[in-house]
Amino acid sequence: MKHLLSAKDLSHAEAVALLDTAEAMAATQSRAVKKLPTLRGKTVVNMFFEDSTRTRLSFEAAAKRLSADVINFSGKGSSLSKGESLKDTAQTLQAMGADAVVVRHSACGAAHLLAHAGWIDVPVLNAGDGTHQHPTQALLDAMTLRRWYNSATHSGDDGAPAAPGSDLDGAKLVIVGDVLHSRVARSNVDLATTLGAQVTLVAPPTLLPIGMEDWPCQVHYDLDETIAEVQPDAIMMLRVQRERMSAAGGGFFPSPQEYSRQYGLDATRRAALPEHAIIMHPGPMNRGLEITAQAADDPRSRVVEQVANGVSVRMACLYLLLADEGNQL
Ligand code: NCD
Fold first, then answer.
1. Which of 97, 180, 266, 311 is deepest in the core (most CB within 10 A)?
2. Closest ligand 1 atom, CA of 183?
């Protein structure tokens, strides 16, 4: 694997290897000194052309914990506003000695273009391209789900995670909300099914993309019926992406209240979930819209753990793409 562009590109074995490496990274993060010397002398460039809090900080923390130097580039305040192209920007950064480029961009395919256009010759990690893919998010979600699922299924309780099993065989994941605009949903459908999970998407018809017949998942429109029928092990609430909706002229649902009533996770729906089910959200959350504050802060919520796992997963990705041969953890 030279780049990490899409969750779809990962085989079962590659996904498991990444998740196992992320677990090994996580184990180093409870030490008093968290830093590992693995990527000393390497430079990771974070190119964020779209807003981000978690993903950008997480990639930066991951690279620094592995002792790499980090250069942060944000679209705002750069020569992009003077019309500089992605190609020129990328070449400038490579000329400054980048050993890997992490890119987030509003255009679908931007990471693929950077990796394959021949402009630069270093590993490219996709940190989100438009509504298309966000592979490290899918990996951190799989890590969160796998840890918990294996502890719950193997030890019969849902307390502290036991040693994680290798995959998500039979796990039932329900993903709810703005699927249309969500690279997180697409990436999760790809990766979770590769790992053996059963994925069900729930959304209003206006928030589902066309061409879903090809997706390896079930699709439903009614959340209450889905919870009752599927009895999910995990429910993942998606952010209502209002910025992409207003750019498209709006009109995706009648009102925020109506959306919350039909598709929001509240106390009643929380109570209808199986007792063991966990609650996930990629963040940033619209509290009061797709999830109530009470559900977001529920003891079963894994939102904060997802963020922590994001650092371990990105350490694993950088390590596997960048460490020199023989450079052990
Ligand atoms: C997601 C993204 O940017 O795609 N957030 C994230 O990476 N933590 C989801 C979102 O913005 O809703």
1. 311
2. 4
